[in-house]
Amino acid sequence: MASDDLEARKTTLEDQIDSLGSWMLGFTWPVAVGLFIEFYAIFNLVWTRDWNSFIDRIGLLLVTGGVSGELLIEHKTHRAERRLRGINVEIERESDLALKAADERMLALDARIAEAKQNLALAEQHSSEANAKAESFRLEIAKAGESSAQANARAAEAQRMAEAERLERIRLEAIVAPRSISIIDQRAIAASLLRFAGSRVNLASYSLDGEGAVLGQQVIAILQAARIEVDNRIATMMPMGGFAFGIHVNGTRDDLVMTLRDALSRIGHLAVAPENTPISGGGGPIMQAGPVSRIPVNAAILIGIKPVPVITAR
Known about the structure:
By secondary structure, the protein is an alpha/beta fold. The protein has three domains: 2-103; 111-176; 183-303, no CATH class. It has helices at residues 2-43, 52-144, 148-176, 183-192, 210-225, 254-267, and strands at 200-206, 229-239, 247-251, 286-288, 299-303. Strands 3-5-1-2-4 form a five-stranded mixed beta sheet. 65% of the residues lie in helices and 10% in strands. It is elongated and about 135 Å long. The protein has six helices and five strands. Strand 1, helix 5 (210-225) and strand 2 (229-239) form a beta-alpha-beta unit.
């Protein structure tokens, strides 16, 4: 990724500047020694009178060499610092672009959630209307004296409509509700993972996904209850190009990966992505905030965006 290359170049330049600082100190010593020799020659002491002219030349050479070295090191340091400032500007620009892209995607998700809430309000309105129709049917039956069979049929139809509206409202509520794992299911998942105690798992979520961060805390509690070490990377992922949806589990230990995927899907009732599904929704690079752990992990879990139902083209 471009960001990794910039960070590597930045580190190289910082190391180069530190090294040039050491060289600057090294060239300062000849200057100091040369000045000392120069002052000694000025005093023209008797016991070195025959050597004072030679000593003076040596001091002059040391001062000249030291100052020349300092000028060269200062020039190299200035060039390195100028390149470092340029790299810092590029890193800041990439970060701004990544944050802007993430903000735009969050706005799009907010719009979809607002639409779902609007549909929920319409469903509640339809449910109220259906209940009103059911009551109206019962009044009409009482007033008109319809036969029992006809009245029961109309009441059943009204009840069916009310039940259909209720089920639709429940379905919409499930769409907008945040994902969560019940305490009972958390204990069951932890029990199924006890045989992997001592393993290490990386868990990450997107930087602006509050719902995913809350779910990630529940998964971390489950892993810790199973005595599995966790590399907590919640709210550190900054994708460019798209989000991954659902829970993604990958890693080097196949039995652990399969057990995690099965437990989160079957017991936790979460949408788990199929094996080897790409974690970048748009195929773009992913930036990570904060320090990256160098300790190897046996499995990695990404808490992606909560999936929502969409229509498909026929």
